[in-house]
Every structure is written in C-alpha cells, then in structure tokens.
Specification:
Helix content is 19%, strand content 33%. The chain is α/β, with parallel strands linked by helices and 165 residues long.
C-alpha cells in the first residue's frame, strides 16, 4: 500500500527533473541571444530599396531609426533572428508593392522586441495598402509606442500564422 502512495510522488519528481533539464536549456539559449559578445548588426533606419536578407549570423539587428521597405523590395528575415527597436517612435513600414517575409520555425522563432523590455518601447510593424508579407513563428513584443497597435495591416495580402503578439 505504501508503494502505491509513493509511485505518484516518484513520477512527479521524475517529471520535474525532466522539465528542469529542458528549461535550463531554454534559459541558456535565451541568455546566449542577449550575449554582448555576439555579433550585432546596427541598422540606422532609412529605406530598404532592394531585396535584403537578415541572417541569424548577423543577429541581433538593432534598428536605430524608422525602417521603410520600399520600391518593390522584399526584406526576408531568417529563423532565429532577433530584431531590437530602440525608440518608441521607430517602426518597420512595408510600403505599397514591397514585402516582408518573416518565416521562423517552432524551435527558432523570429523575435521583434526592445532592450527596454516595457510595453510601448517601439512603435509597430505597419503593412501599407498594396504591400504583402508573411509572418510565421514570430514574437512581437513590447511594441505599441504612441498608443499604436503592435501590428498594422492595411493590405489584403498578408498572412500571420503561429505568432505571439
């Protein structure tokens, strides 16, 4: 009888040990993305007027001004990339005829965030009418500066799938 009472406790302990080992791996990965020794790419803001790819090797990307994708260009962001916005007025604007392709994975999502880690630390991602894009497996955090929503879609050709906003 005592063995039956102990079995749920042993199972609970094993589950906690298993979870603990997996959560420590997640924590280590999170700390690694914030490691100042990692390569960082500063993006001064302005216009992206030709097709551009942001790679995981160049991450994090620190956006230092409003960034406009224009002239039919496509900004493609690879899985695992972290994009930091450093000002409540800065945003990513996808203009008419241009595109944003954000396709992360379950294990390697794309993160849009701010080092300030407070709501409204940067403005938003804004799809203008006539633009297009795909957001899959991404996290959009700490946006909404100037009381804007984190994601503005004024276009009928944008797909948002498996994202946290």
């Amino acid at each position: 009888m005592k063995l039956k009472r102990l079995t749920p406790c042993i199972l609970s302990l094993l589950v906690l040990l298993w979870l603990g080992s997996h959560l420590s791996n997640v924590r280590a990965a999170t700390i690694d993305t914030l490691d100042p020794a990692r390569v960082q790419t500063d993006v001064p803001g302005g216009t992206i007027a030709s097709d551009t790819v942001w790679t995981a090797a160049g991450s994090p990307y620190n956006v230092l001004g409003t960034l406009v994708v224009n002239n039919g260009a496509t900004l493609t962001i690879e899985p695992g990339v972290v994009v930091n916005f450093n000002n409540p007025g800065h945003y990513l604007w996808i203009r008419n005829g241009s595109s944003l392709e954000v396709t992360g994975t379950v294990s390697s999502p794309i993160t849009f965030t701010s080092p300030a880690i407070t709501a409204g630390s940067w403005r938003n991602i804004n799809f203008e009418a006539g633009s297009s894009g795909r957001l899959a497996y991404c996290d959009i955090g700490y946006a909404g500066g100037y009381n804007d929503g984190a994601l503005w879609i004024n276009s009928s050709d944008v797909v948002v799938q498996d994202c946290t906003i």
